[in-house]
Write a structure and sequence with these properties.
Blueprint: E1 3-4, E2 6-8, E3 14-16, E4 25-30, E5 33-38, H1 43-63, E6 73-76, E7 89-92, H2 111-123, E8 131-143, E9 152-162, E10 175-179, H3 198-203, H4 212-215, H5 227-231, H6 233-237, E11 244-245, E12 250-253, E13 256-259, H7 264-267, H8 270-282
Parallel strand pairs: 6-8, 7-8, 10-11
Antiparallel strand pairs: 1-5, 2-3, 4-5, 8-9, 9-10, 12-13
Region (Disordered): 1-22
Biased composition (Basic and acidic residues): 12-22
């Protein structure tokens, strides 16, 4: 999940990657290649920095886009884009805590809320009323209030938005959340990169004191957890959040029916299976 420490363009052009500098990245080895992963130690600042990168990418895309109102523009960012310096953003399930929405004081309690608020503000722009944004995915590790060895749950979900003009309408029906179902061999989930703790035991059969980049190639956790969606379904669907959860890959937007699948979900034909089951039921 990182970038190469050394950039080798040609035999004569070999230089250190300027992004891999002390204080802003962590280092590891993947299949013999030295890599670094950018991120801020403060997870809230890490989210703000990633939102700034995303905003810059959106503005660059807008500059080269077709401005015709009858052309749907689709912006797609990479999977794992919202993943912290040490891995998954951690949330704790507490009765008084909001995970996705702001709290009673109008503030965000965690990184997930900051991500959603930042993206929501980004698409509320008259310039983007003919745009569809898939802002990559968010990696979350949920720490449960238990004492056993398996008290972490893991989530990987996409965030899909239809842009709109706030002067003409609202966000209602334009916010979607897409949970990923299947864990692929390249998914990096744990909240720490070198670990022998309970978080590691949840993903791997045994914990080892070595960089998790190596261990992450063989996860035994085959499917992502779903408890978070059950616990906060009402919070997501109710005002002012108004998120629609895409559970089987299908959605309809402005009369266009489309599917959204993340990585291995497509390879395992999640949306196709849902379509075929629905066809059989209707018959």
């Amino acid at each position: 999940g990182g970038a190469p420490k050394v950039i080798n363009n040609t035999d004569e052009d070999i230089h250190a990657n300027p992004e891999c500098h002390d204080g802003w990245s962590v280092e590891g080895t993947v299949e013999g290649e030295s890599q670094c992963y950018m991120g801020h130690e403060n997870t809230t600042q890490d989210v703000y920095d990633r939102l700034a990168v995303m905003k810059d990418a959106v503005e660059r895309a807008y500059k080269v886009s077709v401005r015709s109102d009858d052309t749907l523009k689709v912006f797609v960012a990479p999977e794992f884009f919202f993943r912290g310096r040490q891995g998954a953003y951690v949330v704790q399930q507490q009765e008084t805590e909001h995970v996705f929405a702001k709290n009673e004081n109008g503030d965000c309690d965690n990184e997930i809320c900051h991500i959603l608020q930042g993206l929501q503000d980004m698409v509320a722009d008259a310039r983007f009323k003919d745009w569809l944004f898939l802002f990559g995915t968010v990696i979350v590790s949920e720490e449960l209030p238990t004492e056993d060895d398996y008290d972490y749950l893991f989530y990987n979900f996409g965030l899909l938005y239809k842009g709109y003009d706030p002067a003409e309408g609202t966000h209602y029906g334009k916010r979607f959340l897409i949970p990923k179902r299947y864990v692929s061999t390249s998914d990096f989930l744990t909240p720490r990169r070198s670990d022998s703790s309970k978080a590691t035991l949840e993903i791997f059969e045994t914990a080892k004191d070595e960089p998790l980049q190596k261990l992450a190639l063989q996860p035994t956790h085959k499917k992502y957890d779903r408890n978070l969606w059950y616990a906060y379904k009402d919070e997501l669907a109710s005002q002012p959040m108004d998120y629609i959860m895409i559970e089987y890959g299908w959605l309809q937007m402005d009369g266009i029916t489309m599917t959204v699948e993340i990585c291995l979900d497509h390879d395992l034909r999640s949306a196709l299976t849902a379509f075929l089951v629905d066809s059989v039921v209707q018959e």
